[in-house]
Amino acid sequence: MAAAEPKSPAAAGAAAARRLARGCWSAFWDYETPKVIVVKNRRLGIVYRTVQLLILLYFVWYVFIVQKSYQDSETGPESSVITKVKGLTLSEHKVWDVEEYVKPPEGGSVFSIITRIEVTSFQTLGTCAESMRVRNATCDSDEDCVAGQLDMLGNGLRTGRCVPYYHGPSKTCEVSGWCPVEDGASVSQFLGKMAPNFTILIKNSIHYPKFQFSKGNIENRKDGYLRHCTFHEVSDLYCPIFKLGYIVEQAGENFTELAHTGGVIGVIINWDCDLDLSASMCNPKYSFRRLDPKHIPASSGYNFRFAKYYRINGSSTRTLIKAYGIRIDVIVHGQAGKFSLIPTIINLATALTSIGVGSFLCDWILLTFMNKNKVYSHKKFDKMVDAPGGGAGPGLCASEPSQQDCTLTDARGLAQL
């Protein structure tokens, strides 16, 4: 019989490739499980169980109970606010009603209650001395005043003349505009004497579209309830009628000081609703705080100007009013939540995965700080060696029992740990 001809290198390579492909296809269907080693060490066991307990407490108490992560949530409800102010007050010269001291009168979520005014009456178009508060307005002669100059923070167009001021020996440049200017003839009037007793009705309704949930802050009664009630956090939660003095007091402010300088008070309505409970458990929570920085003089306080126009003897005349007041900003926010299966599953899976942090920490302690760390390393990790003459490639371990390509190098075991 003739001797078998040696295979060519190409044929041998093809055969090796086929064997590798069959091995990979077979290994694809193998199931791999991590190696479990029990270490008899009390201190390490205490660390392991403590870490597991802390992780478990975090997820049970904080994630699920406090944060309610098992719920689907929606923030920022759709909201509408309608306000109405009632009351009368006195100044040095007249009685004021709501139509005069509330701006704007439409009853929106932002409105102002005037508590002090500085009135400049009978202003007409003409020429007069500029205010001393305007930059470069003071002068000694006409040469100090440039005709035609217009200061954006001034009160008119300069005529080029230097004229005596309204009071005192000073002089300022003459301007053409509404005269006399504000600080030359203004009269102050205080309206805040009875203002603490003003009542403010705040109607608020909210809607969470994701859950199709709506609610309002007024009790549904037909006995004229709103005509004789005022807000109380316990007994009259659904009577949203607040006294102005109560709002300022709850914001921690002195009413008299605030009425003189003006300021901004926020009425915050918070609707945090757990929709897994009854709708009656979803209630508004009110809080009050000052919004303008009162400790920064440049930006504290609140005032605005408006004018009333009329004609006297055919001449245009106006009364300029600089109003100081308490501006009320009604701010509505909240969050609603309801049980949902998807966030529950996600957070449960996260919790179960996080418990494995205890094993990682203990493995790190064993491999780094324990006296027998090398013994543990030999038991935990099998060192892989190539089978002699195998074609599986480096790093692959054949599955046949006869191949000794996976060896344990631990000589003594973990019994001594």
TrEMBL record:
Compartments, record wording: Cell membrane; Membrane
Glycosylation (residues): 197
Gene Ontology CC annotations of this record: apical plasma membrane; neuronal dense core vesicle; plasma membrane; postsynapse; receptor complex
Keyword Lyase found: no
TM regions (residue ranges): 46-64, 348-370
Membrane topology recorded in Swiss-Prot or TrEMBL: Multi-pass membrane protein
Protein origin, superkingdom: Eukaryota
Protein name: P2X purinoceptor
